[in-house]
Design a protein that fits this description.
This protein has one domain. It is about 85% helix and about 0% strand. The chain is elongated. The protein starts with a helix and ends with a helix. This is Holin. It comes from Dysosmobacter welbionis. Keywords: Membrane, Transmembrane, Transmembrane helix.
């Protein structure tokens, strides 16, 4: 239970919230046709790569 609480707390960091919000916004924009699927995939890939890259770096330092 403590591990679950710790993981939920880490989801509330600014970086995580920005990632989730940006993903939702671009998904909505792609759904309404305001951005192309290619543009969405480019932005989504960069954001996710940055997010997971920083997480992996953080774990490597610990």
């Amino acid at each position: 239970m403590e591990l679950l609480t710790q993981r939920l707390a880490s989801l509330l960091t600014v970086k995580s919230l920005v990632t989730v919000i940006l993903t939702a916004v671009f998904a909505a924009m792609a759904g309404t046709g305001r951005v192309t699927a290619e543009q969405f995939l480019t932005v989504f890939t960069v954001v996710i790569a940055f997010y997971f890259g920083t997480q992996a770096e953080k774990r490597a330092r610990e």
